[in-house]
């Protein structure tokens, strides 16, 4: 058994070495720039590319995966959700469900479960893109109202 393993192991290592990939310098530079923008709270898309993506996303309901609510970092997400109002004018409860992958603006999108206890809509998932530094959404997701002031 040991002899068989000694013979097979080098061939397995050689075969697996073909699976190892390296990042090309230009790809690494792009990755570094993308990560730097993310850490600064900036969108992966900028300028006319972002404008085009915004126009395409506007065809979908605000808060959908195809048109996530734009915000400025987690604090901006929470501020937006705190300004939403249920049908009975109460503040909904919300919980971050996690990220759901890349959205239409090239950024990671988060899903929030928003609940109106005893009011409508009873529960909804709202998708949010937190990589829009300084941006404050003024429109409410369908089915909700929104206050214009700062979160309480």
Report on this model:
The chain is an alpha+beta fold. The chain is 35% helix and 20% strand. The chain has four helices and six strands, in the order αααβαβββββ. The chain has helices at 2-17, 25-39, 47-57, 73-83, and strands spanning 69-70, 84-85, 93-102, 108-115, 123-129, 145-146. The strands form two sheets. A four-stranded mixed sheet has the order 1-5-4-3, with helices on one face. The chain has a two-stranded antiparallel sheet with strand order 2-6. It starts with a helix and ends in a 6-residue tail after the last strand. The model is unreliable at 3-24 (pLDDT under 50). This is Lipoprotein. Keywords: Signal. Residues 1-29 form the signal peptide.
Q: Approximately what portion of the residues adopt beta-strand conformation?
A: 15-25%
Give the distance, in angstroms, between the N- and C-terminal Cα atoms: 70 Å
**What's the order of the H and E elements?**
HHHEHEEEEE
Assign an overall shape: elongated
Strand order of the largest sheet: 1-5-4-3
Major beta sheet summary? 4 strands, mixed
Helix vs. strand class: alpha+beta
Q: Spans with pLDDT under 50 lasting ≥5 residues?
A: 3-24
The total beta strand count reads 6
Mean pLDDT: 84
Tally the structural domains. Answer: 1
| Alpha carbon gyration radius | 22 Å
- Count of helical segments? 4
Helix proportion:
25-40%
């Amino acid at each position: 058994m040991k002899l068989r393993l000694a013979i097979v192991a080098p061939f397995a290592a050689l075969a697996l070495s073909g699976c190892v990939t390296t990042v090309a310098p230009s790809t690494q530079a792009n990755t570094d720039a993308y990560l730097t923008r993310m850490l600064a709270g900036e969108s992966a898309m900028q300028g006319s590319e972002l404008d085009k993506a915004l126009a395409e996303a506007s065809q979908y309901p605000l808060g959908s995966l195809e048109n996530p609510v734009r915000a400025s970092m987690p604090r901006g997400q929470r501020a937006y959700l705190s300004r939403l109002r249920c049908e009975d004018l109460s503040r909904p409860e919300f919980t971050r469900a996690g990220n759901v992958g890349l959205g239409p603006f090239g950024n990671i999108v988060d899903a929030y479960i928003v609940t109106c206890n005893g009011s409508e809509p009873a529960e909804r998932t709202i998708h949010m893109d937190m990589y829009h530094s300084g941006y404050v959404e003024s429109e409410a997701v369908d089915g909700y109202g929104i206050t214009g002031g700062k979160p309480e």
